[in-house]
Write a structure and sequence with these properties.
The complex is a heterodimer of chains A (212) and B (267). Chain A has 212 residues and is an all-alpha fold. Chain A has six helices and no strands. Chain B has a single domain, classed as Rossmann fold (3-Layer(aba) Sandwich). In chain B, a hairpin with a 2-residue loop joins strand 1 and strand 2. The chains are: A mainly alpha (212), B alpha/beta (267). At the A-B interface, helix 3 of A face helix 8 and helix 10 of B.
Chain lengths: 212, 267
């Protein structure tokens, strides 16, 4: 027989996975718009706002579950983790919106012809971290944190490498600014992926580990 | 400025407190029933220690081991040691009446005596000859203050204790326990018959009492144990399954049985 608490926790998990799916799709869409010089800000912003609304719903439901059921041990850890994860997923949506906003705010630019820049690879790595973090929410498999942390570390390396190369770049200043902002947002997206992994690890094991 | 947060600092560290009560290989039988099995724990001084577990697990029996209340059950027998401040109270030559002066007890249901508020508190000091009559007024006032009841009853000390609410009656019982100046206060589900408001007052009182006394609490209410205690023991069928810092027990228990019990997945 399911406990009422199990039903509530399951519903919140469903909301988180929905937030995650929307966020990953929105990030992919924002990057696609960036690469193709298309202004899709309005649509990505709408998805970001949807994620934000769902984050508030998660917070409300988790708070209500805690107040009414007074959970302990793994139940309490899961709800604490879910509240934190809702914030991280909200940030996913916000960074997707920030990426799409660059083209919307600063207009067109000429692409930089420099083989040293690896923005697309960084984008794929950040998306991989995001997808893995969602898989961890779905499966509660804390062992995935190690693989995730390796990819996340590679996003840090790529970020600093691109930062260095962009600082020496002689291309269109608008393009440099646009690339600079985007690599920063991608690095932050991957950071939030690692925070989600840490939260799942804590919920599953009760041990706090940091991969930052 | 650089600083480090040591997680240990954020948690209660039982090693810092002194052992007040130590159970060494303590076993208890009621006739053929082995009610407590190889109990080995140390209750620290000046904190609240909670015993929790399902009905019949032995938590009240363990509590009664601290003031030898099990002695009044004809079929009860025990082996092992219970040390208070290093002295084995199970040994020969122990005067149980003297022991119970040091170990006050509060029960599940408020059980004031059928007498005035004043006499409820003065009764034990007179019985145990721990006070002259002229000292009684001070003892009564101090005990009622200690139980956070003085301001509510100071103008009606001659009223019957039965005229008080359930929560006030329970605090009368706590004041009664304090009147003989014990070291240890045992509380056997002290809030189970009280409403939420009275429960909050008793819980607040427990936090104050531990400044002067060692408090041992038996409770079915997990949240109450989490709210008021520093150390918690989880018991099951006469055994201590897990004993540790309350925050660890409720957030990340080591034993699967503890996890199942406190998350309601038991049985």
């Amino acid at each position: 027989m399911s406990r009422p608490l199990d039903i509530g926790i399951g519903q919140i998990k469903g909301l988180l996975l929905k937030m995650g799916k929307i966020s990953v799709d929105a990030t992919r869409q924002a990057l696609d718009g960036f690469y193709k010089h298309e202004d899709n800000y309005a649509e990505v912003k709408m998805w970001s706002n949807t994620v934000q609304m769902l984050a508030e719903e998660v917070e409300d439901r988790a708070t209500e579950l805690i107040a009414l059921n007074q959970p302990m041990a793994s139940d309490l850890r899961i709800l604490k983790a879910y509240i934190k994860i809702a914030y991280d997923l909200e940030r996913y949506g916000r960074y997707a919106m920030d990426i799409s906003e660059i083209r919307h705010r600063i207009g067109q630019w000429s692409d930089i012809d420099d083989d040293r820049l690896t923005l697309k690879e960084l984008g794929e790595a950040a998306l991989k971290v995001m997808e893995m973090s969602l898989k961890m929410i779905e499966t509660m498999d804390e062992t995935m944190i190690f693989e995730l942390s390796k990819i996340e570390a590679s996003t840090d390396d790529m970020y600093f490498e691109n930062l260095k190369n962009l600082s020496k770049c002689k291309g269109d200043p608008v393009a440099i600014v646009a690339n600079l902002l985007t690599i920063r947002y991608l690095e932050r997206l991957a950071d939030h992926g690692s925070y989600i992994a840490e939260s799942i690890s804590y919920a599953a094991t009760g041990k706090r580990i940091s991969i930052r | 400025m650089s600083y480090q947060i040591n997680e240990e600092l954020l948690r209660f560290r039982p090693k810092m407190a002194q052992d007040k009560v130590i159970f060494n290989d303590f076993n208890l039988w009621y006739g053929e029933k082995h009610a407590l099995i190889d109990i080995n724990i140390a209750v620290k001084s000046n904190i609240v220690t909670a015993f929790m577990g399902p009905s019949g697990c032995g938590k009240s029996s363990l509590l009664r081991g601290i003031n030898r209340m099990n002695d009044i059950i004809p079929v009860a027998r025990s082996t092992g040691e219970v040390l208070i401040d290093g002295k084995n109270i199970m040994g020969s030559g122990i005067n149980v009446y003297d022991l119970r002066k040091r170990v006050g007890m509060v029960f599940q249901r408020p059980n004031p005596f059928p007498m005035s508020i004043y006499d409820n508190i003065a009764y034990a000091p007179l019985l145990h000859d721990v006070a002259e009559e002229e000292e009684l007024d001070k003892i009564v006032e101090n005990s009622l203050r200690g139980a956070a009841l003085w301001d509510e009853v100071k103008d009606r000390l001659d009223d019957s204790a039965f005229s008080l609410s359930g929560g006030q009656q329970q605090r009368i019982c706590i004041a009664r326990a304090l009147s003989i100046n014990p070291d240890i206060i045992l509380m056997d589900e002290p809030c189970s018959a009280l409403d939420p408001i009275a429960t909050i007052k008793i819980e607040a009182l427990m936090r104050e009492l531990k400044e002067k006394y060692t408090v041992v609490l038996v409770t079915h209410n997990l949240q109450q144990a989490a709210r008021v205690s520093e150390m918690t023991a989880f018991m099951y069928i006469g055994e201590i399954i897990e004993f540790g810092a309350t925050r660890d027990i409720f957030e990340n228990p080591r034993e699967e049985l503890t996890e199942k019990y406190i998350t309601g997945r038991f049985g």
